[in-house]
Model the fold of this input.
Amino acid sequence: MIRFNCDYSEGAHERILRKLAETNLEQTPGYGEDIYCQEAGDIIRKLCKKEDAAVHFLVGGTQANQTVIAAALRPHQGVVAAVSGHINVHETGAIEATGHKILALPSEDGKVRAEQVEELYTAHAKDESFEHTVQPKLVYISNPTELGTIYTRGELEALQAVCRKHKLYLFVDGARLGYGLAAEGNDVDLPVLSSSCDVFYIGGTKVGALFGEAVVITNKELMTDFRYHIKQRGGMLAKGRLLGLQFIELLRDGLYFELGAHGDRLAGRIRAACEKKGYPLLVYNTTNQVFPIMPDSVLKQWKGKYSYTHQGRVDEGHTAIRLCTSWITREEHVDALVRDILNS
Amino acid sequence: MIRFNCDYSEGAHERILRKLAETNLEQTPGYGEDIYCQEAGDIIRKLCKKEDAAVHFLVGGTQANQTVIAAALRPHQGVVAAVSGHINVHETGAIEATGHKILALPSEDGKVRAEQVEELYTAHAKDESFEHTVQPKLVYISNPTELGTIYTRGELEALQAVCRKHKLYLFVDGARLGYGLAAEGNDVDLPVLSSSCDVFYIGGTKVGALFGEAVVITNKELMTDFRYHIKQRGGMLAKGRLLGLQFIELLRDGLYFELGAHGDRLAGRIRAACEKKGYPLLVYNTTNQVFPIMPDSVLKQWKGKYSYTHQGRVDEGHTAIRLCTSWITREEHVDALVRDILNS
Amino acid sequence: MIRFNCDYSEGAHERILRKLAETNLEQTPGYGEDIYCQEAGDIIRKLCKKEDAAVHFLVGGTQANQTVIAAALRPHQGVVAAVSGHINVHETGAIEATGHKILALPSEDGKVRAEQVEELYTAHAKDESFEHTVQPKLVYISNPTELGTIYTRGELEALQAVCRKHKLYLFVDGARLGYGLAAEGNDVDLPVLSSSCDVFYIGGTKVGALFGEAVVITNKELMTDFRYHIKQRGGMLAKGRLLGLQFIELLRDGLYFELGAHGDRLAGRIRAACEKKGYPLLVYNTTNQVFPIMPDSVLKQWKGKYSYTHQGRVDEGHTAIRLCTSWITREEHVDALVRDILNS
Amino acid sequence: MIRFNCDYSEGAHERILRKLAETNLEQTPGYGEDIYCQEAGDIIRKLCKKEDAAVHFLVGGTQANQTVIAAALRPHQGVVAAVSGHINVHETGAIEATGHKILALPSEDGKVRAEQVEELYTAHAKDESFEHTVQPKLVYISNPTELGTIYTRGELEALQAVCRKHKLYLFVDGARLGYGLAAEGNDVDLPVLSSSCDVFYIGGTKVGALFGEAVVITNKELMTDFRYHIKQRGGMLAKGRLLGLQFIELLRDGLYFELGAHGDRLAGRIRAACEKKGYPLLVYNTTNQVFPIMPDSVLKQWKGKYSYTHQGRVDEGHTAIRLCTSWITREEHVDALVRDILNS
Done:
């Protein structure tokens, strides 16, 4: 079986394993207070051109989302997100478990628009019984989104503008950031991201690390006591250096961006095959996720050969699926899939 | 600087790193549904002689404690623990963050006694205004405790008896279990542990793994939907096999117990040196933590040479400290420390 | 100004005030353990024909919703509700504050349909990554709904059937129950309600009491330790008898149903006037809330004369509003309003 | 049976009932936005000599404690309180249910001392692993305490000083404030209280109201969005004017203080009888609670005649109990009790 169901089927880039082995018997302080976390943080601050950003390393995405959001909000405040946002659908209510409502906005392509935030904020502010409704305070977006689409610089800046205007925080979930930054048509880079949002993270788990998300906080209000929150939410790794070491390897010389580009290129080949064959896409994007609408007869043939994610029934004979490439997807696996698409 | 401040200063046992490298490019399902987690679970069930136990792998101890406790309790129920229990003092209120009160019991040696539980339960049950107080429902103990002491089989069985009598759950935090099971004077093994409590975990982080705690649930009531809870609390590792692989290596041929014995033996050498020199122990135990009461003058000399944990001021000139050995502590480091103790 | 903006603008029915005065200096046990709460509970059990129902009295609706839901669910479970449900829009995230997600279903008329519940449940159960999503466990409906519509006996029984089939709880918020039971076209009564849901409440605040909601639990699973939950959520009134006394007066001889009928009849007059005048209704119902779509020019004239609730802009020149009658609305106030509608 | 078990066995002062009746059919806005709440707030601001204080009315004490504390703290922060504090023992974990740990301090007489706060704060600040422990942020005291003792002005000011020094909030639970302010030896008044703490409440439930606590916030940081918190915690009474009306009656001409003095004077008679008879007091105070240590033989005789609260077994033949007087305790009931004490 060849796995195209997600981007975390394998371990880590070999350089990461090597680095872990090399440093294995060194003694360091625990809980992220070691020299490697320090160094990784410095690399990130430099890449982001934000010398005063706070950088924290967490093991996974749900943890990062939960910790950032719970740290940012007071009890009566809620998170604005796309209805398809990861926190709204795939985290078993982790945000609600910290006490906060997700104010879900409709979205066809996984993105939240500045106008939607403006409208939602204004509706709350003007409501006669505003104190009876949750106060919007933080806007959560992912880049790329759950549907693989990416925000343009203009879109990010528009979101930033509406957030600043209404004193909302803007938080970018970058679990697949590497695939976004390397994508065709992307005009966002780390400095743009850093200066347009209050907090974001650089996802490692899906882009070459064993695990790990680097949370970058640029808004001073959100920096205070952040390590307490990490500990309280169960996210403070005893051997924290494992996180620092991985991000050093990923980011010291551009490996992270190469890995992202690899995944995007191979997804592009699959996408092109689908288009050539005439299989429509549920949503178009240029990152590592492809969402073709497939005849059920073809999917039947793929059983046991390829794994993919079920995205939804479209009609009697068709199903939308997700095919995911990754930093380590093999060219020959894509060759095989492309062949099978074209010959189907 | 030689670190004796904790048992997680280094990476992992070399066999673990090797195993991770060997399997690195295999594709497996995520979130702990891979063959390695399955295999590790089977090994654990066999070692515990509990074929129907549920085994789940979590990254760290706070996460494990939080997830087990929140999954077990209804909102008005609380956790009984020693006042020195890890959940009561070193987890930044992680349990309270899930909504539950910790009902703390006094303890000199870190242990909870069956009689204390009986008394607390009865006081609640007899209270005229019992509905105005938190209902005790789960007893949390660690073995070894925060003070390195271990429970005897008799003590565990007495706790089990009182818990069964009053329908309380018994939960054993085994973050340092390897050091407990290998300790001089210990009469508990995995089958005893499995049959005397409702849920416990085998700690990997402090006994040779990069990270990881294997939660073993023996009470069917606690098994239902447990994976939802793991996900909600941010503890479901995407590349879950990393946990399975580590526990396979630690447990397939007794490595875990050897590593525990190594730490205990070296701690024993330090303890003996303290006793020989006449430095009293805050609490006596036979595991990998030593708690001598040291003259401040000696500690001053150690500055920059050895790291340790501050345990508390005892009097004007003396301080109780904690010296920790581990699965990888080097004999020559202990030689040096013993020499410095004896010559101090 | 004549208030039609809500159904809690006045105090209580005079019989209630008289009863409070008569019993004022009696000494009774606190926290709802007095003879009046006992008597009120007995009356309710009899009216519901459920001898083994548990009855508890809470001060208000948000409290009742929060307490029932938090008591019923485990952490990973969520509440199914109409998107317009009171808990989803008008309680400042009170449910999320107890840790639970609201799984909102689209609804034109404020009702949840059995088929929607079936579909939602099945989608969750069939989801490949079901453990990553919130588990539906309780269905929350209001009768009458937020839009004043009422459930038929058939609809309730269909909801009950799907809930039983999937082991979901059915919870009916009856904040305006009096207006529902007295409504034209209603075929539900207390025994029907009691036997078709697991828990519901009889709202006093909006139907003649100073305050108070009588929670009736018919499912034994939900009865356990319920008083602990009331206390924990801040809902245990010290002088609990105030609640018992009010429900005795409302329910001992049918006053509650008369008060409901009064409100419904007067709302009917307003509704008829709107229809006669040609003002369309946002949603049609037969209870005490009327939702006409009004010309802004008319609303301008009403300023300072009548208060109402803003329901939403419909187009450039029209606004949907809510006009509420109540148990104590004066005939002459309705006369005036009807006149102004017809002459507008 | 004559009830001395608590101070909320009866209804309300007759003036309150009269006021409710007089205003019963007036129409007012709901949720505390009526003229009576406004007027009551003005009276309180004047009595406190704090023109810019925010005043909110809540139904009960647990609700008030929970709402204030949850509104004031971020997730990793905890409440400092006496181990005997109401929030620590008699609210079914209501504070923990909002996610916060109570940092309990030992106390013989129910009071928290400034030195204890200083010590606790410093211990946290100096702890090597401070981020692994809950951050103290709010000091909760009651005046009178659970044991009926009262704070002197000096004690309050010392607490204020340590709180200001370390940026902690000082919160005074005044559920029995009326009995404290009227007590012999008391040197605190509303202006002193207002200027020495950040938030406190004037308890109505136990001092002549049907129910109600007036929360007075003097620190601007705590004022923001407070009404959202009230709503979220289920504490926003629909007919909020019921609260305003009661506090107007209690406070417009000193009735509240007279009622407190009445309770204190009668408790004094009981206390004197105990002392005369030689029954020792568990703790001495001058407010409305008396804590004699009684021979079990006497308590046996009282069965069915007097109700009291069990406070704890003292030795084989003696039990500490609590006898409570109130704003409405009858002289002849105290006559009887005093007689029975002296003749026992």
Chain C touches chain D through 50 residues (CB under 8 Å). Chain C has 14 helices and 13 strands.
